[in-house]
Amino acid sequence: MPLHLTKIAFQSESPASLRAWLESHETEARLTTRYLPKRVSEMEGGSLFWIHGHRLVGRSPLIGFQETGQGRFWIRLQPRLIAVRGTPKRAHQGWRYLEEQDAPPDLGEGEADDLDAMPRAMLSELTRLGLV
């Protein structure tokens, strides 16, 4: 079972803008991080799960990690966003590990997340209360 990462979709206004940013890259998208994960060998076949609005909204398959030459590392991602069932997730700095058994399932083609139909303010309040 692969190990995954979670990260906030910083500066993305919506999952759609995150998808547009990812798809604007031809072969791979890169994020910079200060530290190489200690469990990097367990991440083969894993994904980076994106947090937006205090919930996991999608994932991008990991290609790998590469040193930038400036004492940092690139997280190399496939330039696509695979929608997942919306799952509450608190915001955090940097990235965190996500075990396979805790990862939300992918949404099928044309399948919508029930939470997407809910008004944004209501969803935010229910998330804050820990009800969704």
Automatic annotation (TrEMBL):
Pfam families, per this entry?
A: DUF1489
Give the superkingdom in one word. Answer: Bacteria
Q: What is this protein called?
A: Lysophospholipase
